[in-house]
Amino acid sequence: MKSELAEMALDQTRTMLDDDAPEAVPMPHALVPHLDEIAILLDIDGTLLDLMPTPREVWVPPGLSETLGRLTERTSGALALVSGRSLNDIDLIFAPDVFRAVAGHGAEMRLSVDNEADAVHAPPLDKELKRRLAAVAKLSPGILLEDKGYSLALHYRLAPHAEKAIYEAVSLIRADLPNAPIEVLPGKFVCEIKHSGFTKASGVRELMKHEPFRGRRPMFIGDDVTDETVFAIMPDMNGLAFSVGRRAMGVNGHFDAPADVRAFLAHLLDPR
Ligand SMILES: O=P(O)(O)OC[C@H]1O[C@H](O[C@H]2O[C@H](CO)[C@@H](O)[C@H](O)[C@H]2O)[C@H](O)[C@@H](O)[C@@H]1O
Ligand SMILES: [Mg+2]
Fold first, then answer.
1. Ligand 1 pocket by Cβ (under 6 Å)
2. Last residue of one domain, picked from the residues 160, 195, 230
3. From the CB of residue 70, how many other CB atoms can be counted at a distance below 10 Å?
4. Which residue range is the domain that position 245 belongs to?
5. Which residue has its alpha carbon closest to ligand 1 atom 14?
6. Does ipTM come in above 0.90?
């Protein structure tokens, strides 16, 4: 059965990969203000880290944590990871290093690395809804379930043929619950179901109200459809937006791959 909602979600993914976007500046060094003035906001998967077949397989290349740590110092703490991953996952990936973060597409936020009490979390998804969504993973071998508590992600990178069936099944579940405050978030070979009412952009707006971010110019680098919400708000804060792997609308420049982002960040520390 063809579902309008499923088609809309897939269309959204496709139209945001904008082939008609104007040619962007390939290496943005010259655009970046002094480290005293900026807040550095970084997506993780596909931006800092190379994409892997499954979420658990990502790894932090040598030197990256040190670069992030030094940039944190040089910006007086104004560096944050802005990710769809949960805070817990981010900490496992970067352990033993801990960074300020907007996590879970805005569901979680950590403003201070010294005081875990500062971390803000969204409420969990309804249990029955989760149970029904989790059953969608049974559609095909290779579909992986990632339960973040407040959202649930169905990964199909290992079962790409199942994409349409997943979106259709999810839209049928949604149709049964027309008043549930949830939304479907398409990502890279992933269909995520989350509470509506928060996005990476709402998380970034909140983050930028707090020290040490307040008053600085945000510079955000991201690679995915979910990062479009942040690209869109950068002009409101006199900020800069850079995309990775593709040219997105409204960005100031783009990088070809995560390795280029890592080199760029290292170069910010030593621009000679
Ligand atoms: O916002 P991000 O930091 O980019 O996180 C987005 C999602 O990343 C992870 O999934 C993606 O990366 C995996 C590892 O490379 C890949 O196997 C998967 O296909 C991608 O969708 C993570 O598992 C999700 O929770 C994040 O939302
Ligand atoms: Mg990403």
1. 43-46, 51-55, 58, 83-85, 146, 153, 155, 157, 187-190, 224, 226
2. 195
3. 17
4. 25-122+198-269
5. 55
6. yes
